[in-house]
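W.,

You were right to be curious about this one. When I first looked at the sequence I had no strong expectations either way, so I just let the prediction run and decided to look at it fresh. Below is the sequence, 323 residues in total, followed by the output.
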Amino acid sequence: MRALVCEALSDDLSGVAVRDVATPDPGPGEALIRVRAASVNFPDMLMCQGKYQFRPDPPFTPGMDMAGEVAALGAGADGPAIGSAVYGGARLGAFADYALAQASALHLKPAHLSFEEAAAFPAASLTAYVALVRRGDLQRGEWLLVHGAAGGVGYAAVQLGMHLGARVIATASSEEKRAFLARKGVPHVLAATGFRDAVKDLTGGAGADVIYDPVGGDVFDESIRCIAFNGRLLVIGFAGGRIATVSTNMPLIKGFSVVGARAGEYGRRDPAKGRENLAAIAALAEAGALKPHIGASFALEDAREALVHIQERRAIGKIVVTP
């Protein structure tokens, strides 16, 4: 079978190429998936650069989210039957013709989602759910400020926030991205810099109750200037490149919290809650409340270019690879 293999870690992703590799056999509890689509996530790119928290040694095949059909089951596998259309996640391996996943972690693909949409769903939606519901305790009527809102994890937070009844303000870095958000019905769309005063004006001077920040750097610095008393500033990632810091007098004086949100680690630390989270986002997908926007699709032969697309911040919505 074909797979995108990271043979060497490199900032420019030059160590990544499509190779012919052996098709894996499912072990106990595993399912072999014929991959129809795989979602490209920011951590996939970081892993190939050796910059993510989880640092597999080369050679490895990146890819965390996929959708396809169950081709084979390992001993004792408890999950969808062979031939079922499914979606699910794994820490590695989705950028390939076939990939392995824990059978119990797979979900039947909703009929209204394409394979591309189903593949693009899990990581972004789970991140949004853990951040806003579990860690941010977002309440109906609160002001939610979402940064990087045109990207995969940002747009999932926008959708979930609107579904939960929050008053959503979104920021994005380009006119094209802001126009996309406006077309999707986001009520308040701002530039990714200089948003402080506009947020204060929209919120009657109070500031945002919950701020969802996958960007970091200057965006984080400006966010602490427009957060409400008892606000929750959710740290999702550092797509902007710089890891920001905050003087502890600021949370003290302004009465806000800085809260980390790692969806995968949350589930690993509390498996029962992790299963609840997966069931919750599956129900939201089934109800149509969460539906990813596919901004671009790449053939497996061009999967390296998909990673470059993410690296250069060109993504609107989700990027997928289709073997």
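Here's what jumped out at me. The mean pLDDT is 94. And, maybe more interesting for your project: The chain has two domains: 2-121+292-322, 124-265.

Coffee later to discuss?

I.
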